Amino acid sequence: MMTEFEALAQIKGLSRTRLEICIREAWITPARSKKGHVFDDVDLARLRLISELADDLLIDDNAMPIVLSLIDQIHGLKRRLHELDEALGADAN
Questions:
Q1: In Å, how far from its chain's centre is CA 51?
Q2: Residues 6+ apart with CB under 8 A from 14
Q3: Are 52 and 15 in contact (CB under 8 A)?
Q4: How far apart are CA 31 and CA 29, in angstroms?
Q5: Which residues have CB under 8 Å from 56's CB, separation 6+?
Q6: What distances in angstroms separate CA 39 from CA 1, 7, 62, 74, 78, one per listed residue?
Q7: 51-55, 61-65, 70-74, 88-92: range with lowest mean pLDDT
Q8: Which residues of 31-66 are buried (b: 16+ CB within 10 A; e: fewer)?
Q9: What is the mean pLDDT of residues 56-77?
Q10: What's the whole-number mean pLDDT along residues 21-43?
Q11: Confidence of residue 35 (pLDDT cuts 50, 70, 90)
């Protein structure tokens, strides 16, 4: 787990404003502690992705939820295909 301060220091291009938007828009769902938000590995990976999309591909805040949704769908489909592949492999044995 990582604090807000640590996340801001570690993730290139992540500003406090962008972090606040990510939390407000529920693009990430960090846990809360007495000291504020804390981020797990999934949150941190998603923050890196959002920063790269915004900085490198110039995806704005209006388009970001659409892009993130499409990426989530792709990952979900890959996971389902992997499960199907494993199930078919088990049937062949």
A1: 10
A2: 7, 8, 47, 48, 51
A3: no
A4: 7
A5: none
A6: 5, 8, 24, 23, 25
A7: 88-92
A8: eeeeeebbbeeebbebbbebbebbeeeebeeeebee
A9: 97
A10: 95
A11: confident
Q: Report the predicted TM-score, pTM, of the whole model to 2 decimal places.
A: 0.84
SS (HEC) of the chain: CEEHHHHHHHCCCCCHHHHHHHHHCCCCCCEEECCEEEECHHHHHHHHHHHHHHHHCCCCCCCHHHHHHHHHHHHHHHHHHHHHHHHHHHHHC
Residue with tokens 């992997």: 82
